[in-house]
UniProtKB/TrEMBL annotation:
Catalytic activity: Hydrolyzes the link between N-acetylmuramoyl residues and L-amino acid residues in certain cell-wall glycopeptides
Residues covered by the MurNAc-LAA domain: 73-232
Top-level taxon in the UniProt lineage: Bacteria
Name by which UniProt lists this protein: N-acetylmuramoyl-L-alanine amidase
Enzyme class: hydrolase
GO MF entry, a single one: N-acetylmuramoyl-L-alanine amidase activity
Gene Ontology biological-process annotations: cell wall organization; peptidoglycan catabolic process
Record-listed E.C. numbers: 3.5.1.28
Length: 242
């Protein structure tokens, strides 16, 4: 195997730090802004992944800039990405609520997105090469296209389930979990029909203790390292079993 082979076989992780610029995200009682925690964890996670030869990374933002949802979604329309991981911090009116949680797209939202794609002939979404080929050869076969997209979505769900098991396992060694179950949401950032996507709420900025912790490099590193180890475990296993 030569170097170019190695590069093309790398797992591409798109890291999305939530909010940024004029959008601070949630704000803690002591003034900590969610956007700052998100970018810190995203940059650390990038470092961990880039130091590992099986991964390459793309960031939706690498500084304190504001990105619209549309701009964020351009990244996975135009790049072949194996996984999107979006990083956020939660908030609650109840100050005692704390802990991390994981979110994936709700099936009903994904249904809607797939149907919208099929109705809209000008969609410029980049699919995996093999799927793109079938789509090009069967431009007007909506039934076939829908079947493929539905199958792909169940495969993505499986990836998200398996991966979340690894993430929970790593996180619970290091930080408090809010819930040890995946949550479903109709979130725009998770709604892309061509890549699996998972969103982590790393803790509650409205909890006094977690706001303090989330502001430290030590605690941020615990989270980014846990995410890295989970990705490593999941993807080295799937690579081996190919
Ligand atoms: Zn957020």
């Amino acid at each position: 195997m030569n170097n170019t082979d190695n590069l093309s076989k790398k797992i591409t992780i798109l890291i999305d730090a939530g909010h940024g610029g004029k959008d601070p995200g949630a704000i803690g009682h002591n003034g900590l802004q969610e956007k700052k925690v998100n970018i810190a964890i995203a940059l650390q996670l990038k470092k961990f992944l880039d130091n590992d030869k099986i991964f390459r990374t793309i960031l939706t933002r690498n500084n304190d800039s504001y990105l619209s949802l549309k701009t964020r979604k351009q990244f996975f329309k135009k790049n072949h990405v194996n996984l999107l991981i979006s990083i956020h911090v939660d908030s609650s009116k109840k100050r005692y609520v704390s802990g991390a949680s994981l979110w994936i797209i709700s099936p009903s939202r994904m249904d809607r997105e797939i149907n919208n794609y099929l109705k809209n002939k000008n969609s410029d979404i980049l699919f995996a090469e093999s799927i793109q080929k079938v789509f090009n050869e069967n431009k007007n076969d909506l039934f076939l296209k829908k079947t493929i997209l539905d199958l792909q979505f169940s495969n993505f769900q499986k990836i998200e389930f398996d991966l979340s098991t690894h993430i929970f396992e790593q996180l619970k060694k290091n930080i408090k979990l809010h819930k040890i179950e995946l949550n479903y949401a109709s979130l725009g950032i998770l709604s892309s029909i061509n890549i699996p996507a998972i969103l982590i709420e790393t803790g509650f900025i409205t909890n006094f203790w977690e706001e303090k912790q989330l502001n430290t490099t030590f605690y941020q590193k615990k989270i980014s390292n846990a995410l890295y180890l989970a990705l490593k475990k999941y993807f080295s296993f799937t690579l081996k079993s190919k």
